[in-house]
From TrEMBL:
Record's keyword annotation contains Electron transport: no
Keywords, comma-separated and alphabetical: ATP-binding, Nucleotide-binding, Transport
Family: Belongs to the ABC transporter superfamily.
Stated name of the protein: ABC-2 type transport system ATP-binding protein
Gene3D superfamilies given in the database record: P-loop containing nucleotide triphosphate hydrolases (3.40.50.300)
InterPro entries to which the protein is assigned, alphabetical: AAA+_ATPase, ABC_transporter-like_ATP-bd, P-loop_NTPase
Keyword Transport included in the entry's annotation: yes
Amino acid sequence: MDTLVRATALSRQFGQHSALSDVELCLERGQVLGLLGANGAGKTTCLRLLSGLLAPTAGRIEILGIDLVRQPLAAKRHLGYLPERPPLYPELRVDEYLTYCARLQRLPRRAIAEAVATAKQRCGLDEHGRRLIATLSRGYRQRLGLAQAILHRPAVLILDEPTEGLDPVQMRELRGLIRELAQDAGIILSSHLLPEVQAVCDRVMILHQGRVRLDAAIQTSRPTNRWRVQLGEPLAVEALKLLAPVAEAQALGSNRFQIELCEGTNSADLARALLLAELDLCELAPERSDLERTFFDLIGAEEQHG
């Protein structure tokens, strides 16, 4: 596979504060890499460094083998960047804005009209070229921000919180668009939402306090039907295994259990069985995914119920 981005020992200081320390990153063509972390973990700083908006205090960034610091113009020709708040001009029409962005990207004059039409088509903006940006919904503004990022057909797309503020339908549509764009590019996106990273990424890098705590492929195995149960009083785990919906049970404490349900049963069946057994049910919650458990383990957060 083609290596599109390589960052080596990447660090950034703001005065005495270390925002990013010794980050190693590699992105291949066709990959969607998710930067995951709590607010303040260093995600946006990392993306700004990779897009050339910030200079690293130490380390090296290569875009298709081109040093981003030493040859910024050559490297940035292969980059498309969507910040958390797209750089839009509300008084312009969609076509005017994209034409202006194409000129900033130094596209040949004869190629601008086709580039604008292609970007609009890929981002679902075909019918909106004459609309004022001020009249667009949040979802369509995000689409427009993505359209400006892909005008020049970059090999690398960098997206900062691309689904922030979108409703569920808009989020699903944007996820599909990101996967489509990844067919002939590499994409790095940041998010603090674990389900979002799992839905669209095939690799995840977890940042905490400016350091990489995990860089691994996301497991795509079928999720199991596991639930966490807390009862009002201690109970032997063998008693739970006798309940009809329960395939397996494991004690996590005197009154807390992890339960895997039989195929074809659901949490309602389990709750009903517990109540019929006259057990005091205090909590019934889905078991966290492997990525979620890993995330909280790595950042040292206390386990939260619910």
